[in-house]
Specification:
It contains four helices and no strands. It is mostly helical. Helix 2 packs parallel to helix 4 and helix 3 runs antiparallel to helix 4.
C-alpha cells in the first residue's frame, strides 16, 4: 500500500483545492472606472474689441518708434565701442562709449515700457476672466522679442569695452 500513498495524498490535495471558492482574476467593476480628467473644452473665441485694437495699434506704433530710436543709438554706441576697443577704463573714449550705452539703455527702456503696457492689458483681461485676445498676445510676443534683442545687443557692445575698475 505504500506505493499508492503519494498518489492518494496528491489526489486529496487537488480535491481540497477545488472545494475552495477563490476570487476571479477578472477586472472588478471599480477597476473599470475611468478617473482621468475630462478633456478641456476649447478656448472661447474672443469677440472683436475695437477699443483694444486701437490701443494695440498705438502700442505697436510706439514700439516701432522705440525700435528705430534704439537702432540709431545702437549704431552710434557700436562705433564708439569700436573706437574705445583696447582703451583703458576711465579713458575719454571709454567714457564716450559708456555714455552711448546709457543712451542705448534709455532707448531700450521705451521698448520695455510698451511691453509692460501690453502685459498689463493682457493681465487685466485674464483677471476679468475674458477670453485671450490673439492680437494682444501677438503684440506682447513682438514687444518681448524686441526687448530681448535689444538687451542682447547692449550686452554684446558692453563686452567690447574694458570692465570698469
Amino acid at each position: 500500500m505504500k506505493p499508492h500513498f503519494p498518489l492518494l495524498v496528491l489526489a486529496l490535495t487537488l480535491c481540497g483545492c477545488v472545494e475552495h471558492d477563490f476570487p476571479s482574476l477578472l477586472p472588478r467593476a471599480g477597476e473599470q472606472l475611468d478617473f482621468r480628467e475630462p478633456p478641456a473644452p476649447p478656448p472661447p473665441v474672443a469677440a472683436a474689441d475695437p477699443e483694444l485694437d486701437s490701443r494695440i495699434a498705438a502700442a505697436r506704433t510706439r514700439l516701432s518708434e522705440a525700435a528705430a530710436t534704439f537702432a540709431t543709438a545702437a549704431t552710434r554706441a557700436e562705433q564708439l565701442a569700436a573706437a574705445a576697443s583696447g582703451a583703458a577704463a576711465g579713458s575719454d573714449k571709454w567714457l564716450d562709449a559708456q555714455t552711448a550705452l546709457a543712451d542705448l539703455d534709455a532707448a531700450r527702456a521705451r521698448q520695455t515700457d510698451v511691453l509692460a503696457e501690453l502685459e498689463q492689458l493682457a493681465s487685466d483681461r485674464a483677471q476679468a476672466l475674458v477670453a485671450p485676445y490673439p492680437a494682444l498676445d501677438e503684440a506682447v510676443q513682438a514687444a518681448q522679442q524686441a526687448v530681448d534683442t535689444s538687451t542682447a545687443r547692449i550686452a554684446a557692445i558692453q563686452r567690447r569695452l574694458a570692465p570698469a575698475d
